[in-house]
Amino acid sequence: MSIRIQKTFEALFALEEVRGLFRESLPTGFDPAEEAAFRQKIAEVKAILADLEAGTGTPKVTKIAGSIDLRTREEEAINIQPIQAAGRLTTEARKALISYGDGYSTCDACRKPFRLDKISKPGIAEFHADLAKFVGMDHARVVPGARRGFQAVTGTLVNKGDTVIVSALAHYTEFLAVENAGGVVREVPLNDKNIVTGEATAQKIEEVKAETGKFPVLVMIDHFDYQFANEHEIKEIGKVAHQYDIPFLYNGAYTVGVMPVNGKAIGADFVVGSGHKSMASVAPSGVLAMTEEWLPKALRTTSMVGDLTKRKFGIKEVEMLGCTLMGGTLLSMMASFPTVKARTLKWEEEVQRSNYFIGRLLKIAGSRVLSEYPRKHTLTKVDTTGSFDTVAQTHKRRGFYLSDELSSRGIVGEFAGATRTWKLNTYGLSDKKVRYLADAFCEVAEKHGLAVEK
């Protein structure tokens, strides 16, 4: 690790220890012993900052709480891990995490009706309204990840034995959400390009009706799937769902927060997004948005009354189990939001960088792209069986040699040991980083005797 990165973390930790002194003291200020401890800590901070500026010194902190390693991959390397790229926190989100990390920090100024989406300080209520507008819907709630958005919808619409239409590339959490509600999934098959079409969706709906005597109760399809990140016929699928009068859930785990999304224009009844995957937010976080029509059902408030106490909690939303995201998780999403809104307008630039890198990778003889190409997304599945894997067959480190080579060049996030089919994501990388990344793969190929087209 660079000593400057090391000293940056040590300075941050030392300042947190200074902060701890304020938390332990009386509101009236330090007593003499606390003042002495404060001055000692400030001297330590100054020494660390001197080392940071000069690039000198030795590592003093290697663990958090004695057992947790420092996570420095975002500072030290180019991270192409497929699910981490768009969840990388903004600087403002990291600041919010420092300030609002305490468990119930969002509740400092909570007043009646005691519900998360009604809190005005910090501006959580306004944020909910902005979220709905951001995805082109009427109402929005923050949830602990996209999976909890799926669960809220299936919990509302699906009864035991009901059928839900999903993609043959659907994420496992979609399956679990349906199973948890007692339903059954039926998968829409892919065409020869690994795309889910509107026509195939209609055929699946007809099959379900013929076999069960009932139409499916929900169509739940990803815009871009997690396996290939191919773009599916999402508008056509939305039209089909509405032709059959079936509600449509748009899975935007890989779109909300990275590209423009307008749920109503797509024909969605529900939009689900992932905060920690695509909105530069702390995990677990996500968003569930819906049209006005579904508010009374999907966000119904409790009507239950205690038999002894006669207590009622009528303002609490059942599918949300009351309040959802609290503390640093929610505030990180809020702090990143201005950047997230702005970056969706530059989606085409991100896709261009993705295509530049994949184009360079394809210059290495034997390399293939399994996702649709040219790319429409920054997440891509590649096949290097005919290139890097040919080296792995005789290398003493087998497939791990590629990880070694990339790591030595400051590149992380590829599947360690994988040299056949694997995924990567270039989202958020600058032009110079994408060029560096492409150059690195070509250098590794040439070093090990693979032909590279100039």
Strands in their spatial order, largest beta sheet: 4-10-9-8-7-5-6
Number of separate helices: 17
CATH topology name of the largest domain: Aspartate Aminotransferase, domain 2
Q: What is the general shape? A: flat
Please state the second-level CATH architecture of the largest domain. 3-Layer(aba) Sandwich
Uncertain segments: none
Q: Can you give the mean pLDDT?
A: 97
Sheet-strand content, in percent, reads 5-15%
Radius of gyration equals 25 Å
- What's the number of extended β-strand segments? 14
Largest sheet: 7 strands, mixed
Class per helix and strand makeup: alpha/beta
The first-to-last residue Cα distance is 33 Å
What is the percent of helical residues? Answer: 40-55%
The total tally of domains equals 3
In CATH terms, the superfamily of the largest domain is Type I PLP-dependent aspartate aminotransferase-like (Major domain)
Q: Kindly provide the name of the CATH class of the largest domain.
A: Alpha Beta
